[in-house]
Amino acid sequence: MTSSPVTSPMTSPLDTPGATPMMAQYIEIKAANPDCLLFYRMGDFYELFFEDAEIASRALGIVLTKRGKHGGADIPMCGVPVERSDDYLHRLIALGHRVAVCQQTEDPAEAKKRGPKSVVRREVTRLVTPGTLTEDRLLDPARANLLLAIGRRKVSDAREAYGLAAIDISTGRFALSEVEGAELAAAIARHEPREIVLSEAIHADPALARLWRDTRAAVVPLAAAELEPASAERRIREQFGVKTLDGFGSFSRAEIAAAGAALLYIERTQFGAKVPLSAPSREASGATLAIDAATRANLELTRTLSGERKGSLLDAIDRTVSAGGARLLAEHLAGPLTSLQKIARRHDAVAFLVEDGSLRAQLRDALKAAPDLARALSRLGLGRAGPRDLAALRGGLDAALAIAEGLGGAELPEGLARLVQRLDAADRDLATELGAALADDLPLHRRDGNFVREGYHPEIDEARLLGQDSRKVIAALQARYAEATGCRTLRIKHNNVLGYYIEVPQAVGEACLKGLMREFVHRQTMVDAMRFTSVELGELESKIAGASDRVLALEAQVFDGLSQRVMEQADRIADIADALSALDVAASHAELAVELDWTRPQLDESLAFAIQGGRHPVVEAALRKAGEAFIANACDLSGEEAGRIRLVTGPNMGGKSTFLRQNALVAVLAQMGAFVPARAAHLGLVDRLFSRVGAADDLARGHSTFMVEMVETAAILNQATRRSLVVLDEIGRGTATFDGLSIAWACLEHLHEKNGCRALFATHFHELTALSKRLPRLDNATLKVAEHRGDVVFLHEVVPGVAERSYGLQVARLAGLPASVVARAGTILKGLETSERERPARARIDDLPLFASLSEIAPPPPEPAAPEPDDTLGRLLDTIDPDSLTPREALDALYRLKAERTGGSRG
């Protein structure tokens, strides 16, 4: 999806003559934020007007009303309560809207001083967009909320590189990378951003139009004039308070441009609020397993094809117990490593925790008690934190210290030891002070007060005591007034409009007015009661109000002081949060391995790919819930100079697609640092993973299922290397039989001869199995099937060999096709098979030129040499001298030439 460009404040395009002062103010603010829904604060509600109201009413399912007129027409209006605004914001952001929050920035009493028609000053204090959320109620705790900015630089006339800046302001994460133009779509799919920011030039590039249409993220173009290279570098320096970027490493121009665009957008949406970000880290090219967008979708790594987390590989393997751990697990799964050393470090940590079950349980219990440190710290830095965020920081530091103490004496592998050292850096004094300062039962907002623990601050305790004593005085005053008036139902009450007041029944009130209580001053007459005040009650109210205000002011000072202490250690606390998340991921992998009997894979630099007893983790989980067992299968694609290709045939529903996918998922799990669902696995590092499994069309762009299949297959054949793993299913089935057969044949040949990669290739073109005799690195495998009294039983076991049939009719019967249709299809099938058997051998498919020897079809035959031209006419012409011929000789010569040309004679 694409959002409108972010614009600067401008004069309102709407005519305001005749508008009320309040509506004129609204129109002016809305004109400065035309691409956002404007939440306009009016008392306890955020109101929306005009088209914004109509959009919000439909999106939120709230009532659309009217408020006055503008330009002779009714003004549409709807509103949401301020207290519930986060819920409505969440729904609007999920639908792709951007919201400008307009707050009252002036006390209404001050506005009244300027005149009766003056309106309270209001300003937009924040733009709420999908990629800049920080509130817990607006965020998925298990998912990163990334803003992705994109820059570009020209490498050569034919090549462009793109810089990516991935920022999650809810945690402070800031990562930079650069990719080639062909890898841009895959990089975006890996980051799975909520919002993309880029220059108008990149957004308008026709070659990238499809990319912006395909992404689920909101896309926001920025004016090119705002993205000057010098401005980009200046913004980075100002963000981190440095004079040069050299201390952070070396960055390309495209990366700096992307970082500058991201910081500009954050500055604009947060209205100058300082966002605490980690120092930018740079990911080297090729550091992660390259997985394109189609492969991610086909393998359903983090989302199913319908976009749900449930049913994905991530959902099946997640055993984390903290929000930070869940986010890091998703990040590891999205970008498996290609460094043997780093992968081994992760595997060592998992293996240690697998072996020590009691230590693992102790660690997981401590991690369960760790709140979301990273997001609490970010809100604190932005000034949006509440008392519960300080409590989260206290809980996180306590958990870090407890884990460091619990693991400190153990002989840990290198990776775990480093993590524990980072936890041990937690400030015990800060954790202790936060524990002493914060009450057990905390409000959501600091303005609600009563979050400082009793005994922590003497002045707060004194002010609170005064408030409690005042309530006792009010109770005593109420008893005295009741006795004096003889009215036992007299009450002293309080509301936000009148403050404290005396309320008595109507009859007693009349007596009071006649002199029963001369010090009573009449305030209000109700249907069945009258309300009064007195000088004594007014003085008491002032004392109570002063005490309450003093408590709130003192608690605010405590909050600010604690926040400052925390932010002084922001970098250290952020590092502790990262370490806790990494420990959670390692413990999650270990818990999963023990629970499901997964094993540590052996990884090296070879072209090995040998899996024994491999299983599909998602399918196995579903079968386990149903009380069924998963049939494990082996797969060996190992090669010396190039990988092997396994051609898989077998019946529909026999398990070919599951077999293909499970081997790809084993490679992903191994390189992300997890154990794998197999009895044993020896894998050579994979640099690129390609999967073309399943069928889908793209009617919006006029692409048929077959066209999508060919586009994805083309990407595989053009990019796969010897270190790649390729998984292909049913190539060529979307077109005519011979067309599809020819394409599948050519793809197999290309994978074998050109790419040299490890590959699994499933097909129903049984004729292709003959290629195993001609392609030395190709072998055949099939799925076993048993037949019993006309029924077919799928055994889901992969064995060497070739399938004899596809069992399509049996699957059609299981699917519920009418019996008459299935019976007729059986008759037709028998006729076709009989006809095929009776055809002359020279006409069968095996004898077609398509399946002749590779030497005959691999290189096309050379063009035959052209024959020498017959130049008899030329030689005859050479014997003629036109200047010396008589008319008779000239006529004879002409006849000879004609006879030679036609092959005849003069006659």
From TrEMBL:
Residues 724-740 form the DNA mismatch repair proteins mutS family domain. PROSITE patterns: DNA_MISMATCH_REPAIR_2 (PS00486). SUPFAM superfamilies: DNA repair protein MutS, domain I, DNA repair protein MutS, domain II, DNA repair protein MutS, domain III, P-loop containing nucleoside triphosphate hydrolases. Pfam families: MutS_I (PF01624), MutS_II (PF05188), MutS_III (PF05192), MutS_IV (PF05190), MutS_V (PF00488). It comes from the Bacteria. Residues 858-867 have a biased composition (Pro residues). Residues 854-885 are annotated as: Disordered. ATP binds at residues 650-657. Keywords: ATP-binding, DNA damage, DNA repair, DNA-binding, Nucleotide-binding. PANTHER family: DNA MISMATCH REPAIR PROTEIN MSH1, MITOCHONDRIAL, DNA MISMATCH REPAIR PROTEIN MUTS FAMILY MEMBER. This protein is involved in the repair of mismatches in DNA. It is possible that it carries out the mismatch recognition step. This protein has a weak ATPase activity. Belongs to the DNA mismatch repair MutS family. This is DNA mismatch repair protein MutS. It comes from Methylorubrum suomiense. The gene is mutS.
